[in-house]
Amino acid sequence: MSWEFSPYALPVIISAGVSAVLAYASWQRRPAPGAIAFCLLMLAVAEWSLGYALELLSPDLTIKIVWDNIAWFGAACAPTLWLVFVLQHTNRAVWLPRRNLALLVIEPFVTIVLVWTNQWHGLVESSIKLDDSGSFSTLAMTYGAWYWVNIAYSYLLLLIGAVLIWMLIHTLLRSAHPYIGQASALLLAVVAPWMGNALTAFGLNPFPKLDLTPFAFTISGLAVACSLFFFRLLDILPIAREAVFERMSDAVIIVDEQNRVVDLNAAARGLADCTAWQAFGQLLPRVFAAWPELVEQCRNASGSDEYAEITLHEDDARRYFDVRITPLHHQNAQHTIAGRLIVLNDITEHKQAERVLKESEERFRDIFEEAPIGMAVVGRDDQLLQVNKAFCDMLGFEEQELAALPLALITHPDDLRKDALLAAQMPSGIITSYKVEKRYLRKNRETLWVDLTTTILHHQDGQAIYRLVMMENIIERKRARLLEEERHQVAYDLHDGLAQIVASTHQHLQAFASSYRPRSPHAREELERTLDLAQRAVREARQLIAGLRPTALDDFGLATALGLHIEAQRTNNLTIKYEDSLGSERLPPTIETALFRVAQEALTNIQKHSHTDQMRVALERREVAIRLKVQDWGCGFDVAAVLGEASLGEHVGLREMQERIELVGGHLLITSQAGTGTLLVAEVPLPPSQT
Q1: What end-to-end distance do the CA atoms of the chain give, in Å?
Q2: Between these two residues, 499 and 389, which has the higher pLDDT value?
Q3: Nearest CA to 690 among 627, 628, 623, 629?
Q4: At 171, is the pLDDT very low, low, confident or very high (cuts 50, 70, 90)?
Q5: Chain-centre distance of CA 319, in angstroms?
Q6: Confidence of residue 683 (pLDDT cuts 50, 70, 90)
Q7: Based on the number of CB atoms within 10 Å of its own CB, is 220 exposed (0-12), middle (13-18) or buried (19 or more)?
Q8: 3-class state of residue 473 by DSSP
Q9: What Rg do the C-alpha atoms of the chain give, in angstroms?
Q10: Cα(151)–Cα(472) distance, rounded to whole angstroms?
Q11: Is the dihedral of CA 211, 212, 218, 222 positive or negative?
């Protein structure tokens, strides 16, 4: 294949090379919106320019026509790719669903098909011949009907893209310089080949033998290169006005010096309940007639920034807004006010949160002051910051005496180290709360036993700032426990001491009576009486031990001990039905003792007062608790009346049963009806280790 020299081919080849480089550079930035479309556009331009350059260098008519047809691939696709790029670059990609994109590519596809079949219909070009009148040969032709259709379609797409770029420039007139540079370079890039093509197509070309369009693409390539590398096209993307104005959550209103509405965003239109066209040019008091406070603030606005808070009444609800009014000035020597920028920030949720927080603080303050348990707020330096009345009463101090007093000064010396270790772990988050039995020192230096619960209080940013101390007086519980321990010790002392001696004496007397039987009736009678007294002493000792602390409770557990006690009661001609689902499971000693004593007291009361010998005792284990039921079918009684008398010192057995169960965290329920009997139900929660 031979070539002929053409001085005009070099700039076209340079244009193709620049376009190819730009295509590669944009492909490296393909995640950016429009980058892929721009890459394809530059490839189309490169192909168009290269095809035309090879057409200029070819001396033969047939070869020139082939290269001309090849150049049509880029020429037909470039306008469509330009529009796609502009739409994506200006944040209008929503205009390009698949259906619209398919419609856009129909015309380029038809054009390419007609170009390559042109020899049979001549709709694109006709009368093609070789013009070699100059220093180099070119194609001379007559344009067909479809050529002008393609020109019209291409100009339409180029025009739409140019208008969108111009709108972007207009929007960004007050924006950063790179954005304006990007858009201006793009506008130059599209106008240059457009003008070159127009001069060629309409016979205004100063070089009649040349198509100026590919030459103009050299200018386009340089403009786009400037935009890509200097203004960082595809790296820094302009943000549409809708993104920073229309989509703002704050309501924004712009008024001129005559207080007429010039612009307002969607949030402001929602407050005014009108469209932009209805508000444009209208006086602010008319548009926002329902907002007298806003109108008044704007009327009294001065020449500096102003801030205020206004309230809008909507039906029965209220909305609160922070208002900022900023003057806008003319860019002149006098710097006169041209209008005002009004920004309204909806703070209704913030106000509601403040109100809820205030109500919560008031509720906490009421609970804090009126709580029956002692409560105190302790600072990070272990100082008492606030105490309630119950706290003061427990310790015998006045509130003023406890103010700013270190908690360690009223803590029992033996508990200081343990309390300090636990408290030190709370600020770091190792533990958030703890519960212990602790001793405090009252003002008179008496020891006060309490159940202490401590939890951490956090600031809004999550930082630990205070400790909340809650304490319950358990001195009575401790006394009851000590009393039970004393009874337990006395019972074992009796069992191992006096009871053993009495039992041994009885056995020796029996042995003596068997070996040395007295001859006289009187002596035998005295011996029998002595043996009977010894046996009665053994029984009394065992009953006394069982009353103090049944040994079976320690040896075998609650279920077995209660069963043995019931079996012993049956010897008194009582019919007692016993149901047990606990088996041999052992419970904490305090729970076993409390439930056994309640059952023991209940059976005793039934024998004394119910006038019946029919009873039922049930011991069952639930998921997280132990339940004891004692029932009889006797005469019944008025529970409220009897409990009222117990508070006056009579029928104290019921009150003691109630207190025993409450001391181990449970509750006691007694129901009774005259003539039908009584049901007692005691339920005690199990510790977490046994649930």
Answers
A1: 97
A2: 389
A3: 623
A4: low
A5: 25
A6: very high
A7: buried
A8: strand
A9: 51
A10: 93
A11: negative
Sign of CA dihedral 549, 554, 557, 563: negative
Could you count the other beta carbons within 10 Å of the beta carbon of residue 416? 12
Structure tokens at 34: 């429009």
Is residue 648 very low, low, confident or very high in pLDDT (cuts 50, 70, 90)? very low
Closest by CA position to 435, among listed 212, 687, 683: 687
Q: What 3-state DSSP class applies to 403? A: coil
DSSP designation for 75: H
Query: Cα separation of 191 and 211, whole Å?
Result: 16
Distance CA 24, CA 39 (A): 7
Number of Cβ within a 10 Å radius of residue 75: 27
CA distance 504 to 498: 10
Number of H helices, E strands in the chain: 25, 17
DSSP annotation of 243 reads I
What does the block give as tokens for 21? 């480089």
What are the tens digits of pLDDT across the range 261-270? 888 888 888 8
* pLDDT band (50, 70, 90) for residue 135: low
- What's residue 499's pLDDT? 61
Task: Give me the long-range contacts of 367-376 (CB less than 8 A, separation at least 24).
Answer: 371/470, 373/470, 373/471, 373/472, 374/450, 374/469, 374/470, 374/471, 374/472, 374/473, 375/468, 375/469, 375/470, 375/471, 376/402, 376/407, 376/468, 376/469
Q: List, for residues 540-549, the tens digit of each pLDDT value.
A: 666 665 655 6
Bridge partners of residue 448, in order along the sequence: 440
pLDDT at 203: 67
Q: H helices within 230-347, ranges in order?
A: 241, 266-272, 276-279, 284-287, 292-299
Q: How far apart are CA 450 and CA 375, in angstroms?
A: 12
* 352-379 CB burial, b ≥16 within 10 A, e <16: eeeeeeeeeeeeeeeebeeeeebbbbbe
Amino acid of residue 668: L
User: What's the Cα-to-Cα distance from 434 to each of 41, 245, 626, rounded to whole Å?
Assistant: 70, 53, 26
Q: How many CB atoms lie within 10 A of CB 571?
A: 7
132, two tokens: 């070699």
- Which distant-in-sequence residues (6+ apart) come within 8 Å of 83 by Cβ? 104, 157, 158, 160, 161
- Give me the pLDDT at residue 279, please: 83
Spatial separation of the C-alpha atoms in residues 35 and 475, rounded to whole Å: 80
Residue 154: closest CA among 90, 69, 81? 81
Residues 406, 408, 411, 413, CA torsion sign: negative
